[in-house]
Amino acid sequence: MMDLFRTFDISASGMRAQRIRMNTVASNLANFESYRVTGEPFRKLEPLFEAVETAEGVQKGYVPVRVREIRESEEPFRVVFDPTNPRADAEGFVRYPNVELVKEMADMISAMRSYEANLNAFKTTRELAQRTLELWR
Fold first, then answer.
1. Backbone phi, psi, residue 41, to 5°
2. Other Cβ atoms closer than 10 A to 28
3. Which of 83, 84, 109, 117 has the most beta carbons within 10 angstroms of its beta carbon?
4. CA 65, CA 7: separation in Å to the nearest integer?
5. DSSP letter string over the chain?
6. What's the mean pLDDT in 53-75?
7. pLDDT of 14 above 90
8. What's the pLDDT tens digit per position in 16-57?
9. How far is CA 67 from the centre of its chain?
10. Nearest CA to 43 among 68, 70, 83?
């Protein structure tokens, strides 16, 4: 029975991680054309996942996931030549946030599918636990 609870923990950790990933993508999309107070373009945020490994957990196949940190992307800003823009530098180039809409939407779809897979594993485990309890009656 303890293994069932561990399975719930693994699925829940995956759902938590994917929810944070979706929130990060939503933040990136919301700030697609935003600038900081300093005038610097918004930097894309990226969640960094980490497997929570223990020797016993690895041996038994129990390795949940967690979000280690949410960091700013080091990708370069988008640069566009637009000398009429008030944010243009002396050479007429404007720096925009390093957020790419297509990549963000693909990342959101991937996060959503991963969340759904973890949810299905959670539901299947719950159903298995219910059937086991019915057999014990």
1. -65, 155
2. 25
3. 117
4. 12
5. -HHHHHHHHHHHHHHHHHHHHHHHHHHHHHTTT-B-TTSPBPPPEEEEEEE---HHHHHHT---EEEEEEEE--SPPEEEE-TTSTT--TTSEEEE-S--HHHHHHHHHHHHHHHHHHHHHHHHHHHHHHHHHHHH-
6. 86
7. yes
8. 999 999 999 999 999 999 999 998 999 999 999 999 888 777
9. 8
10. 70
| Structural contact between residues 76 and 7, judged by C-beta atoms closer than 8 angstroms | no
For 23, 24, 34, 73, 104, the CA distances from 108, given in Å and listed in that order, are 9, 9, 20, 17, 6
Cα angle vertex 29, ends 25, 33, to 5°?
A: 145
Under 8 Å between Cβ of 78 and 102: no
Cα–Cα distance, 62 to 5 (Å, whole number): 11
